């Protein structure tokens, strides 16, 4: 974290000092959500919504490591997400008046792996019941289980709607 702060101060020192009276330092119009979940294989587009005097330059970081050099591109796109893309993203925006470090957003990648166990067979006599255990499978987020008579539903007032909750008679 200190390294990033020192780097930002050094970057500010290298910005030319010619400033007009009407110049505006960069500022963020919006901040990213703290956590976002996206499906493996989908496209992800992150945006750095900032304003200020032209030209604004943007740099993208992943887990505090540089992804891009400063450029005029305010978006960062990953065309096909995989699990290695999970982590913390943020941008730095600068102009001749200063630089700002965006609040980080955590990107979580939802996936479903292959079945970990091979084929299983189970025999029962006619009229007998069998308990079939679900095969193990690597996934994120963890699978949810529902019992007979329970249905997944989402909170109505003030809930995020991201995770189902159990309720009877939804």
Tally of DSSP β-strands? 13
- Can you tell me the overall shape? rod-shaped
Q: How far from one another are the termini?
A: 47 Å
**Treating each run of at least 4 consecutive H or I residues as one helix, how many helices?**
1
Question: What would you give as the CATH superfamily of the domain at 2-110?
Answer: Immunoglobulins
Q: What kind of oligomer do you see?
A: single chain
Kindly name the structural category: mainly beta
Low-confidence stretches are 154-170
What fraction, in percent, of the residue positions are helical?
under 10%
Strand content: 35-45%
Query: Which fold name fills CATH's third level, the topology of the domain at 2-110?
Result: Immunoglobulin-like
Radius of gyration based on Cα positions:
24 Å
CATH class of the domain at 2-110, named Mainly Beta
CATH architecture of the domain at 2-110: Sandwich
Mind summarizing the main beta sheet? 7 strands, mixed
Question: SSE order, as H and E?
Answer: HEEEEEEEEEEEEE
* Mean pLDDT rating: 81
Pfam families: Ig_3
Signal peptide: 1-20
Keywords: Signal
Domain Ig-like: 26-108
